[in-house]
Amino acid sequence: MLNDELSILLLYGLLMAVVLVLKTTGMLTQFDMGYLLSSRDENRSLEGMLGRMDRAINNSVIAMALVTPPILVIAIRDQSSAHSILAAQIFLAARTIYFPAYMFRITGLRTLVWLIALIAIFFLYFLAL
Fold first, then answer.
1. pTM (2 decimals)?
2. What are phi and psi of 52, to 5 degrees?
3. How would residue 32 be classed by pLDDT, with cut points 50, 70 and 90?
4. Residue 7 to residues 13, 14, 34, 53, 101: CA-CA distances in angstroms?
5. How many CB atoms lie within 10 A of CB 85?
6. Got the DSSP string for 70-107?
7. What pLDDT is attached to residue 46?
8. Rounded distance between C-alpha atoms, residue 87 and residue 69, angstroms
9. Is 69's pLDDT higher than 50?
10. In CATH, what is the architecture of 5-128?
11. Using N-to-C axis directions, what is the helix angle for 82-103 and 107-128, rounded to 10°?
């Protein structure tokens, strides 16, 4: 299933979408439907696990923006290799662990998997150049 970097990128996007749906659904516990259906001109902040989930999503958007260019370059140049696939798989695994580690305040693990994912991104850039 995880046979190429583009599939891994798509799976990461799907993971982000699932977490976004969970966050949005959870917002019903903190805000009334009127606010959720409004233009949200009044800025309200999320608290607790939903706040951490929101911050994890924001961080993941940045990670997606960073990992997409080298994966696209590798795919366009048809330079996929065992190393690039492994780096993409490590990125996906680390970012998958990152969400629950952030949401449940597992601080040391959260930092470790964030760093592992970042190293995988740098390795993908190295391979793409």
1. 0.89
2. -65, -35
3. low
4. 10, 10, 38, 24, 24
5. 17
6. HHHHHHHTT---HHHHHHHHHHHHHHHHHHHHHHTT-H
7. 78
8. 14
9. yes
10. Up-down Bundle (1.20)
11. 160
